[in-house]
Amino acid sequence: xxxxxxxxxxxxxxxxxxxxxxxxxxxxxxxxxxxxxxxxxxxxxxxxxxxxxxxxxxxxxxxxxxxxxxxxxxxxxxxxxxxxxxxxxxxxxxxxxxxxxxxxxxxxxxxxxxxxxxxxxxxxxxxxxxxxxxxxxxxxxxxxxxxxxxxxxxxxxxxxxxxxxxxxxxxxxxxxxxxxxxxxxxxxxxxxxxxxxxxxxxxxxxxxxxxxxxxxxxxxxxxxxxxxxxxxxxxxxxxxxxxxxxxxxxxxxxxxxxxxxxxxxxxxxxxxxxxxxxxxxxxxxxxxxxxxxxxxxxxxxxxxxxxxxxxxxxxxxxxxxxxxxxxxxxxxxxxxxxxxxxxxxxxxxxxxxxxxxxxxxxxxxxxxxx
Length: 370
Fold this sequence. Notes:
Layout: H1 2-16, E1 21-23, E2 33-38, H2 44-59, E3 63-68, H3 73-85, E4 90-93, H4 102-110, E5 115-118, E6 129-133, H5 135-153, E7 162-168, H6 174-187, E8 193-199, H7 204-217, E9 223-226, H8 229-241, E10 250-254, H9 258-265, E11 271-274, H10 277-294, E12 305-306, E13 333-338, E14 341-346, E15 349-351
């Protein structure tokens, strides 16, 4: 039976080689074939998100197959169905559309193949676990940082009082709502803090335009909270155009893209929280293999907190750096529920002037062609 499985995997790899990415480790002690379908790879973050899956599988002795849907939900259905039909042992999906992707889970369930999701979830109770960042928790983290600043740096010292510019993402967008609500769950506890809002659409140019219009009317602000990096860069550029003293404004944002890192280096952004993207798929692979070997009981339980020392996410050096060097980047992780299934809620990386040049930050990874 073992020889038949080896021959089957060899034939499978030959068939898939021309249509998708396939990786094999010659060091495998027990071979699992693990599939990943990502919604799109259009920037360095998304490239590293997929590449870390390949590296972790190869470093730990698993055969991998990866497809990229190019932002097309129908294509993702076709790709995932093909991987299920060819007999992957487990499937990881970064969903282009959380509802359109539901049939993937149904097909996998019929074939007794576990499905995990990363970064973008599927709205289906039979997903085994979703591994991803919580925009709500990240908003809380940055809200707390702004409260600390207002209390310690803004007159009168010791009181939480001031005026904060909040850069909002697209109105009605789930991610934008989570990131704003998390922030407000902290900041709204302080009645002497005034929050003024500008809608930046998660883009630099609209954010700069809206921030300029607001700040021209009243430039008296003590802090900026931005729901993503491009909007934060736009808000900082608006302050620059108005000759404001940026050093006196505490600027906090999500998403440590290259523009944000440059602003941190320049002293124009104080702190950023970023998603630990190199860990998402390795964590999914880690638990997928435990599920295959030990069953449902090997998965964490709702209410648990998983710390970095509880699971080993590591491998070889790649691109001249240990991409998993920051072992606590994702930890502690809270286990909750989302869409009827487990949610491994990763923590966020804090980026300041102290670690802005760290090699493990995705925006510092040099990749030819990106």
